[in-house]
Amino acid sequence: MNSRNSCAAIAAMLLLLLVSNTPCTAQLSSAFYDNTCPNALSTIRTAIRTAVSRERRMAASLIRLHFHDCFVQGCDASILLDDAPSIESEKNARPNNNSVRGYEVIDAAKSEVEKICPQVVSCADIVAVAARDASVAVGGPSWTVKLGRRDSTTASRSIAESDLPRFRDSLEILISKFSDKGLNAREMVALSGAHTIGQAQCLTFRDRLYNNGSDIDAGFASTRRRRCPSSGQDGNLAPLDLVTPNSFDNNYFKNLVQRKGLLESDQVLFSGGSTDGIVSEYSRSPSTFNSDFASAMVKMGDIETLTGQDGLIRRICSALN
């Protein structure tokens, strides 16, 4: 071998070593299942449409389920795991217990997908797709869901207790909690707009109704007191948006401008603080809200995902294989 060929061979070997030692980061892709399970998305969509047609409120619950999953360990379906010797379930954390719903809908969708593509589609991806399909089912925006997440082998009740937003959080705390997940204040306000659908329990808004110092429209408070007495009946439900509680629109933001936000964590978005302008903009422009909401949901779906060889594909979403 002459010196020129020898140098070329050495260079090629060095390049091969360099490439082989460079970590390969798997990327999410909307086409992830095109070859391995081409009917996955249509199968999930059918399951979600069925569930929402049976109970309109389920749309809000499925969007919230995705949110509560992504804020704890990332979008890894950890919220679906039941208690086990090695798992302290997030379902029992204070923000989730007797509050988060829709587990059985995800289980049903997973069961249908498993029939056509056993152990191919992750529970984490089903949760993400379900949120999009739920939005569409009640007139909300659609977006392209990036796929390829894998399921976690762990859960964290402690992170659920600390990182999930609470109904009494101040604006500063909300901004901080979302910032910790890589989401800015505008994205936080947009995602809060999911409260244009769904319901809340009396115990989460009672203080706002009966606190004379609270920033609340008097007529609105009077109406809500009928279903939420000053004590007892904690589980009584009230729609987060009294105007169009079953339709995804921008009335949530119109309500905030009129001091008719149901939760403290809703009204703080329009209470003389830094996000007032965003709320005003969304109250005037439903198209801007829809666009920003869709973009924020895509970004949220990217939080700390497991891909490649990390995690696993659970056969049953509530338990490890």
TrEMBL record:
UniProt key word Transmembrane: no
GO function term, MF aspect, one: lactoperoxidase activity
GO aspect biological process, one term: response to oxidative stress
Residue span(s) of domain Plant heme peroxidase family profile: 27-321
EC number(s) from the headed UniProt entry: 1.11.1.7
Reactions the enzyme catalyzes: 2 a phenolic donor + H2O2 = 2 a phenolic radical donor + 2 H2O
Binding site for Ca(2+) 2: 196, 241, 244, 249
Binding site for Ca(2+) 1: 69, 72, 74, 76, 78, 90
Keyword Glycoprotein in annotation: yes
Principal place of residence: secreted
GO CC annotations on file: extracellular region
Keywords annotated in UniProt: Calcium, Disulfide bond, Glycoprotein, Heme, Hydrogen peroxide, Iron, Metal-binding, Oxidoreductase, Peroxidase, Secreted, Signal
Cysteines paired by S-S bonds: 37-117, 70-75, 123-317, 202-228
Cofactor remark from the record: Binds 2 calcium ions per subunit. Binds 1 heme b (iron(II)-protoporphyrin IX) group per subunit.
Site feature Transition state stabilizer, where: 64
Localization annotation: Secreted
Pfam families with a match to the protein in the record: peroxidase
Function: Removal of H(2)O(2), oxidation of toxic reductants, biosynthesis and degradation of lignin, suberization, auxin catabolism, response to environmental stresses such as wounding, pathogen attack and oxidative stress.
Family the entry assigns: Belongs to the peroxidase family. Classical plant (class III) peroxidase subfamily. Belongs to the peroxidase family. Ascorbate peroxidase subfamily.
The protein's name in its UniProt record: Peroxidase
Native source organism of the sequence: Nyssa sinensis
